[in-house]
Amino acid sequence: MHWSERLADKIIEKNPNKEVYVCAGGASPSGSIHIGNFRDLAVPYFVALALKKKGKKVRFLFSFDDFDRLRKVPVNVSNVVDGFEKYIGMPYTFVPNPFGGQEQNYGEYFENEFKKAVEDMGIEVEFISQTKQYLSGRYASKVAYALERRKEIYDILMSFKSQEATEEGKNAYYPVEVYCSNCLKDSTIIDSYDEKTHLLSYHCKACGNQESVNVLEYFKIKLGWKIDWPMRWQEEGVDFEAGGIDHATPGGSYDVSSVIARDIFNIEPPTFQGYGWLGFQGVASMHSSSGINITPAAALKFYTPELIRWLFAKYDPEDAYNFYFDDTIIRHYSEFDKGLASYLSGEADEFTKSLFDLCLIERRTYQNETSFNTISSLAPIVNFNRDSLVKAIKALDLEWTPRADERFEKATYFIKTYQPEKIFHLLTEKNTEFADSLQEEEKEVVRKLYNYLKENETIKDKEVQQFIYDCVNNPNLTKKENMAVQQKYFKIFYNLLFGKDSGPRLYLFFAASDKSTYINLLDI
């Protein structure tokens, strides 16, 4: 059974008669939302699909916590705009868009960046801006209610902390953050609150503003995170949510918010699933605010949409795993293709069938596709020329399938960006100095290859591969000894063709390339 189905069963068992189940996720647009945060969306999305598969009605929500304060300026923003630190303390949606364009503010810019990638992956979701919810007054009564219960909330929060609660601390605690009406920053100190009149008095450390506001009418007030979260569970009727493993640890945000949900908002907390972190081989730790991250949009440059969905559906949420910017990407395509073939043929096991039910996109049709491995091997050989690549694929008796152009685009980006060492350029003239350094028996092997290639009008990959091994292998040597001989001769061929000790797979190179471009280089 797939993990999404297990969680769906757990949700139904907890509340079997609910008419519409609500799955929710969320992220803060502190900068470009990275692929690690995509689990905030992917996990509840797959659970929502599992619930629908079981015949249940589902509402899938994703909140942008864009009413949170700007805490620091990301590198990619500070590189574009000087002095952006002046906006620290304002809500993301009150901060101007540093990059220009149609987005009205900072939060909207990064939200739209994420939304576009989600749309490209065929995911239908109801996005919610928390700024709009707060400023509409939707939560005003909840803010007043939390202020009324502030001392009880304080006791709950302190029960999870090592330091002891004090009466002084309790009297000074307020479960809200107030944005100043003058400078729009949260550099405010609450002086008092009157529960009967709902008047809250504050002063601003940033601009000196002092005033009293009615919390039922002044909407630039936000609940603290561990109160805001259960309030939204109540408001939206949330049944399931996922979050980083830090939220799921004993005494973490989910535990604290669950007590507040029960004791303050009188609801049962939703089923929660913590997820493991995604690592990146060769890339610094990801933080949206650092400006150094891999976004879903960036991943879509080398992965097809369904393959990203497949990756996130394949692993249990608790599993931590890495994105590798090497041949692992090629392996992922191969694993995906193998699973897809079994799915399309009806031979897939239960887990694989559930996995592909989740990762395939309804608006796209599927068949066994041209191998990404083959495309990525041949693309640099033909200098990323699409027509030459199609010709080479067909010369190998393979099919250029309808989705192959998409894979060619991904492979081109992948190789040029992450594996430029795989791009080899033919020498423009003979490497005579190297050729002269060869022994006579080595030259004779090169001449045999040259004559074979010159005399055969059509070069078949398997045939030329077998010819090369027949030329260099010695039946009197052991397998290990012959491997050393093979390595020696491949190094010779590569130096004559590319001036380097390594190069592409020769049998593919000879079969895919225009003979006239390389044949003279082997004429020694």
State which percent range the strand residues make up.
5-15%
CATH class type of the largest domain? Alpha Beta
The N- to C-terminal Cα distance equals 62 Å
**Overall spatial form:** elongated
Helical percentage: 40-55%
What's the gyration radius in Å? 31 Å
CATH architecture verdict of the largest domain: 3-Layer(aba) Sandwich
Strands of the widest sheet, in order across it, are 3-2-1-9-10
Structure described in brief:
The protein has 524 residues and is an alpha/beta fold. It is built from 23 helices and twelve strands.
Layout of helices and strands:
Blueprint: H1 3-14, E1 20-27, H2 38-53, E2 57-64, H3 75-78, H4 106-120, E3 126-129, H5 130-135, H6 140-148, H7 150-159, H8 167-172, E4 176-178, E5 188-194, E6 199-204, E7 210-214, E8 221-223, H9 225-236, E9 240-244, H10 245-248, H11 253-263, E10 271-275, E11 278-281, H12 296-299, H13 305-314, E12 321-324, H14 328-345, H15 350-359, H16 372-378, H17 386-395, H18 404-418, H19 432-436, H20 440-455, H21 461-472, H22 479-498, H23 506-512
Parallel strand pairs: 1-2, 1-9, 2-3, 9-10, 11-12
Antiparallel strand pairs: 4-8, 5-6, 6-7
Helix pairs in contact: 1-2, 9-11, 13-15, 20-21, 21-23
Description:
The chain has 23 helices and 12 strands. The chain is of the alpha/beta class and 524 residues long. The chain has 4 domains: 211 residues, Rossmann fold (3-Layer(aba) Sandwich); 82 residues, no CATH class; 97 residues, Arc Repressor Mutant, subunit A (Orthogonal Bundle); 91 residues, Arc Repressor Mutant, subunit A (Orthogonal Bundle), CATH 1.10.10.350. The protein has a 5-stranded parallel beta sheet. The protein has a 3-stranded antiparallel beta sheet with strand order 5-6-7, with no helix packed on it. β5 and β6 form a beta hairpin. The longest helix is centred in the C-terminal third of the chain and has 20 residues. The chain starts with a helix and ends in a 12-residue tail after the last helix. About 2% of the residues have low confidence.
